[in-house]
Each structure stands twice: as structure tokens, then as C-alpha cells.
Design goal:
This protein has helices at 35-39, 45-64, 77-87, 101-109, 124-131, 139-150, 190-198, 216-229, 231-234, 254-259, 264-277, 282-306, 335-347, 352-366, 370-380, 386-397, 414-420, 441-452, 454-457, 464-472, 476-492, and strands spanning 3-6, 28-34, 68-74, 92-96, 113-115, 154-155, 158-159. By secondary structure, it is of the alpha/beta class. It folds into three domains: 3-115, HUPs (Rossmann fold); 124-181 and 230-306, Serine Threonine Protein Phosphatase 5, Tetratricopeptide repeat (Alpha Horseshoe); 316-492, DNA Cyclobutane Dipyrimidine Photolyase, subunit A, domain 3. The strands form two sheets. It has a five-stranded parallel β-sheet, sandwiched between helices. It has a two-stranded antiparallel sheet with strand order 6-7. Helix 4 links the parallel strand 4 (92-96) and strand 5 (113-115). The structure holds iron/sulfur cluster.
Length: 495
């Protein structure tokens, strides 16, 4: 029987997913550009441009390679697929198991046949085997099991370099003088320009120049650029937030891994080959490998393991509306936040530390609704698939799951940002102060957050030190007063 091979915009591979079972002679490859998807939210322009242009390029490349391809613009994905099925009623609808609950459910109602999803290194069943045996879902334990299972950086059952992780080496602050190297830009073509013209007015953010490639060749170019120019320095500076570079020594590969233009298998292989060449320290290689075979697989595994309703958690009863500064960097005087939100506006990307310790930390400390914050994160980051953002925001960022994913909240005052970033010197606030008009909002809100949630954390032994610190505060009444001022000022855009 002939098949309709449906390729979602996050499975753009000729070698993986449904293309593995496709026949050039008999089958029709279908991609659907859903108007509801494009206009349904206030998406970042970089994100829309990247996803749509990559899909259109992918369809064009398949067609020029001799495949029968339909690229449909439709009101919804379902409407587009129905249209094709009406034209080819005897064809079977085939797709790789989708990467989101919603698409999986929709395609199931259309009797689609699912083929193995091999855009990850760990199947759902394999992850469940691990998770079912855990008392707590510690990423580090999963990562070590992955290293052994995949035989990566392991020698006779022992970790290469003598340790499973090199975190202690990988926490360098940004130096005053450092060569952060270059970032790639790509030439726009007619497809890119057409997509730009069609972007909806509802979209948000900057779109000057082409910093994100939209073809497999450009994704490979980005991978090569990282391994040649940044890989060796990646580890030591992976947590640093320098002023002089928006991407530091990060790979910028997550968008391509998440839309299928690159596979984790080939990225890991390339990293290990570079490491074997001998000019990359183990701290950089291990730190990078951890992101791919550890964090990425763990987050995807937990997304499915915890189920669809996990996204609705709100254990700390956080109900504040999204702060205006998340869409307007000028709506705050906090230099770190202004700088990070400007980067998001500009590139649709910042690395994991500004995401976690600036943006998410602020949402957590101010009590922004986890669901509102999740929507924003999904809309503005170029690599923000549902499976990425739901566990990251509900579990890691806002502690809305009562510690299912992370045993304690990632809450911090200004000291961490002051140490790992270069924002504080030019800020009107002082990271060391928790009271007074020039007190750092992070520092004030950190103590106020602990105070507001002291009952929720009372039995959490990992919060013991913090809660003991709170009890020792002699100026708690002043902190509470300053916190009220800061919270109302952030909501009105005056802090
Ligand atoms: Fe951010 Fe506080 Fe530093 Fe200002 S003082 S840049 S608000 S951490």
C-alpha cells in the first residue's frame, strides 16, 4: 500500500523518522504549515522564521531529489492532512512517533501508523525502565547510566579522565579580557525572504540578518564552526555570562537538534572524534556530552514519563501575571534582566544560565504563574519545543511540581549573578544589599521568597541551610517592606 509520509516541522531528516520507511516511487511526503500554529501565539520572529523556512527548504530539497512532495498551507495540521487523505483515500498515513502529546493524540485520531522515533538516543520504554527504579529522578544518576549504556567516555566501566563530571572545573566566571571568538551568520535566499514577508504582525522580536541556518548544510556548518572554534573552551566557561558575547563558547546546536536537521547521534560522534584528536580538554568534552546524552534525553524522558497534566502543577500557588519586562527590556532598571531580555529579543536564545538564574529565578522569586511563564518561554526561545519547556519550567525553573524533578528550587539572590556575570557594575542596584532603595531586587526577593514559602519548605531537608539563614535575619521586617515595593515596581515596570 502506498503511504502518506507526514513530516512534522521537528522531524526534518531524510535518514530518521518516517523517511526511513518511505519509498520514492510509491509514497507522498507531506508537510503542513498550520496557520493556527503560526498566529495562535505571540511567537518570536526568529523562531517562526527558523521553523518555517527550515521546513520549506527541506520540502524543496526532497522534491529536487525526486520525491513526490506536498507542502500545504492549511488552517490546521489536521485540516491539511484530511485534504491530502481525501485526494488519496487508499494511502496509509505514516509518521514517526510525534514529539508532543498534542500531535500524538491528534494523529492517533486519524489512525496514523507510527514508526520508531529515533530523534533521541533513549526510547520512552527505555527511559521508563530507568525511572521506575528511582526513588528520586536525579539527572546525574541517569547521565551515568547513559554513559555506561552507550559506552561513551567509559573505559572498562570507569569514567575517562577519572571522574563522571568536571563541574568543579567548569564554573569559571567571565574574565575581564577574553577572546570569545566569532558567531556564524548565513546568507538569506528566496525561501528565507518569502517566509520573512509572510510572518504575522502578532510576532515579536528582532529578525535582522540570518543567525540561524535553515538547511541541513547550514546546520552542519554550525556544527563544524563550534567544534573548530569553541569546543575546547566550552567547558570552563559554560556557566559564564559575559557582556562581550551573546553566546560565549556555546554550540548553538539545540535548534537543529530539536527540528531534526541534526541528530544527537552524529553530534556526539563528532564531539568524541574531536576529543580523540587530542586538542580538547576532558572538561569541555564531558560537559558537552552531558548536555546531549544527559540533560536533553533526561528532559525528554521526563516529559513523557510525567504525563500531560504535569504542566498544570502550581505547588507554590504562584499567580502573579507575567511581568511587563519579559516583553520589554526597557520596563526594568535591573541591568542583568534588561541585558538578558534584550538578547532574547535579538536572537531568540540565551544559554542555560541566563535562562535559569536570571529569567526563571525572577519568575520564581516574584511568584509569576508557572503556566504564564511556560507560555512565554515556549514563545520566545528558538529551541523551545513542548518537551523541552514543560519539565524545565514546571520542574526546574518554578518548582511548581513540589520537587518531583529537582529536590530544591533554583532560587538565588544577586550574589550568583554578580559572580558569574558582568552586569552588576553598571547596575543602579547593589547585589550585596537586601534593604534600602538601592538593594538588588534579586537579593531582597530571595529572602522574601523563602519567608513567604517557609511552610512549603519546612520539611525539605535540602532547604535546611537556607531556612536557617532566614531565621537568623535580623532585618526581616525591612526585607518584607522592601520586597512589597520591589514586587509592585516590577509589575508596573518601575524597578
Ligand atoms: Fe542584576 Fe542585582 Fe546585579 Fe543589578 S545588582 S545586575 S539587579 S544581580
Amino acid at each position: 500500500m502506498s503511504q502518506i509520509i507526514y513530516i512534522p516541522f521537528d522531524q526534518l531528516s531524510t535518514e530518521r523518522g518516517a523517511m526511513k520507511v518511505a519509498s520514492k516511487e510509491n509514497d507522498l511526503v507531506v508537510l503542513v504549515e498550520s496557520q493556527r500554529m503560526i498566529t495562535g501565539r505571540q511567537w518570536h520572529r526568529q523562531r517562526l522564521q527558523f521553523l518555517i523556512s527550515s521546513a520549506r527548504h527541506f520540502a524543496e530539497e526532497l522534491a529536487s531529489d525526486g520525491w513526490q512532495v506536498r507542502y500545504l498551507k492549511s488552517e490546521t495540521t489536521k485540516a491539511g492532512l484530511k485534504e491530502v487523505l481525501q485526494q488519496f483515500p487508499h494511502f496509509q498515513l505514516v509518521c514517526a512517533t510525534p514529539n508532543s502529546f498534542r500531535l500524538r493524540e491528534m494523529l492517533s485520531t486519524m489512525n496514523a501508523t507510527f514508526v520508531e522515533n529515533d530523534f533521541f538516543l533513549t526510547s520512552e520504554d527505555m527511559f521508563s525502565l530507568w525511572a521506575d527504579k528511582q526513588k528520586s529522578f536525579t539527572m546525574e544518576n541517569f547521565y551515568r547510566a547513559q554513559r555506561k549504556r552507550l559506552n561513551i567516555l567509559v573505559d572498562n566501566g570507569e569514567p575517562v579522565g577519572g571522574a563522571w563530571n568536571f563541574d568543579a572545573d567548569n564554573r569559571l566566571a567571565p574574565p575581564k579580557q577574553h577572546d570569545w571568538g566569532s558567531t556564524l551568520t548565513f546568507a538569506t535566499d528566496d525561501v528565507d525572504r518569502q517566509v520573512t514577508q509572510e510572518l504575522p504582525e502578532t510576532s515579536w522580536g528582532n529578525l535582522d540578518g540570518k543567525i540561524w541556518g535553515t538547511t541541513r548544510a547550514e546546520a552542519l556548518q554550525q556544527m563544524e564552526h563550534f567544534f573548530t572554534h569553541h569546543f575546547a573552551n566550552f567547558g570552563p566557561y559554560e556557566d559564564a555570562m559575559p557582556n562581550a558575547s551573546w553566546s560565549g563558547h556555546h554550540s548553538l546546536l539545540s535548534p537543529y537538534l530539536n527540528n531534526g536537521l541534526l541528530s544527537p547521534h552524529e553530534v556526539v560522534r563528532a564531539a568524541l572524534n574531536r576529543f580523540a584528536d587530542g586538542d580538547v580538554p576532558i572538561s569541555s568534552c564531558e560537559g558537552f556530552i552531558r548536555q546531549i546524552i544527559g540533560w536533553r534525553e533526561y528532559i525528554n524522558g521526563m516529559y513523557w514519563y510525567l504525563g500531560y497534566d504535569y504542566r498544570d502543577n502550581n505547588h507554590l500557588n504562584a499567580t502573579r501575571k507575567l511581568l511587563p519586562l519579559f516583553h520589554d527590556a526597557q520596563a526594568t532598571h535591573m541591568n542583568c534582566v534588561k541585558s538578558v531580555v534584550s538578547d532574547v529579543h535579538e536572537y531568540g536564545w540565551t544559554h542555560h544560565i541566563p535562562r535559569l538564574m536570571v529569567l526563571s529565578n525572577l519568575a520564581l522569586l516574584t511568584g509569576v504563574s508557572p503556566q504564564d511563564f511556560l507560555d512565554w518561554m515556549r514563545e520566545v526561545f528558538i529551541d523551545a519545543a513542548d518537551w523541552v519547556m514543560v519539565p524545565n519550567v514546571i520542574g526546574m525553573a518554578t518548582h511548581a511540581d513540589n520537587g518531583v524533578l529537582m529536590t530544591k528550587p533554583y532560587a538565588s539572590g544577586g550574589a550568583y549573578i554578580s559572580k558569574m556575570g558582568q552586569f552588576c557594575k553598571e547596575c543602579q542596584y547593589d547585589p550585596k544589599k537586601r534593604t534600602g532603595n538601592d538593594a538588588c531586587p534579586f537579593t531582597t526577593l530571595y529572602w522574601d521568597f523563602l519567608d513567604r514559602n517557609k511552610e512549603a519548605f519546612a520539611k525539605n531537608h535540602r532547604m535546611f541551610q537556607q531556612m536557617a539563614g532566614l531565621r537568623r535575619l535580623s532585618d526581616l521586617p525591612e526585607v518584607r517592606t522592601r520586597a512589597q515595593h520591589v514586587l509592585s515596581g516590577l509589575s508596573s515596570g518601575e524597578v
